[in-house]
Amino acid sequence: MYLPQATREQTGFSSAVATVVKSKALGPVHLVHTKAPLAGDDPFAGYTDPGDALVWAFITDGAIVCKRAYNDLENRAGHMNMNHMPRLSGFQMTPDFRALSIRMDRQALGLSSSDIDSIARTVFPLTEGLPLMIGSLASQTMRMSGDLGPASGAALAHSILELTTAFVDDFLGRRSAPETMRSNLVTEARQYVDLYSSSPALSAASVAAALQVSPRTLQKAFEPEEDTLGRLILESRLARARALMERDRGGLFPIGDIGVRSGFASPSAFSRAFRARYGLAPREWRERYLQSIAE
């Protein structure tokens, strides 16, 4: 017996479609333990739509049917499958459904739309090989108590991404060694930026030095990507600034200090970049945000 279908809305899946038991963020990788929503669940443990992410679901109990335009795919306990969430029109769970999901940036694996479709049509047993290793690593990470340090979190995220990349390469069987190396270099650069974008000294050149490649090699690695490395650094800093302003519910921290703590060279540089990206000065954005959560 399946619960009523959860249907994707224009803005994604609503918070009521599943209950989050536990979650852990590891930079570019986000681990989420979910279960079927039932009466009596914590109302503040609602589901958060993963946006454009790729989601690898390791089913531990029950079953789920994922609905897409081209097929419906059932995934039962002891199996894994991958979904690009914007391509799902809906899903149905059994009441006993539980899963550990790994969410990662779609670009982290360098997959084309046809690659994603090929993988998403398949359910993989968790009996041996890389799916079992990836699921076990994610499960052990979730069982760790307390928060991981930045270096430990980055190392675990790197391991999960590397194992997933290897699994995808083996499954597709058509990615060349140079392309795999390029994709891995981009992934390492993204992880490094996530860790160190709060430093004003971070630049494309410093990332290349840290990864022990030339700036030109790193630049060429990013050419097939949607964003340049410089844009990636800027977006990471802006995301940090927004997160700081959202956590500062009392509006106590000076805007300039938030910008500097987020990696911008000066308050004026922060203000210019923020306005160019969001259409509002940081102060205006924070005022509107605080008003919205007070209503």
Automatic annotation (TrEMBL):
Keyword flag Transcription regulation: yes
Gene Ontology terms, MF aspect: DNA-binding transcription factor activity; sequence-specific DNA binding
Alphabetical list of SUPFAM superfamilies matching this protein: Homeodomain-like (SSF46689)
Keyword annotations from UniProtKB, A to Z: DNA-binding, Transcription, Transcription regulation
Residue span, HTH araC/xylS-type domain: 187-288
Residue runs in coiled coils: none
Protein name per UniProt: AraC family transcriptional regulator
Organism: Orlajensenia leifsoniae
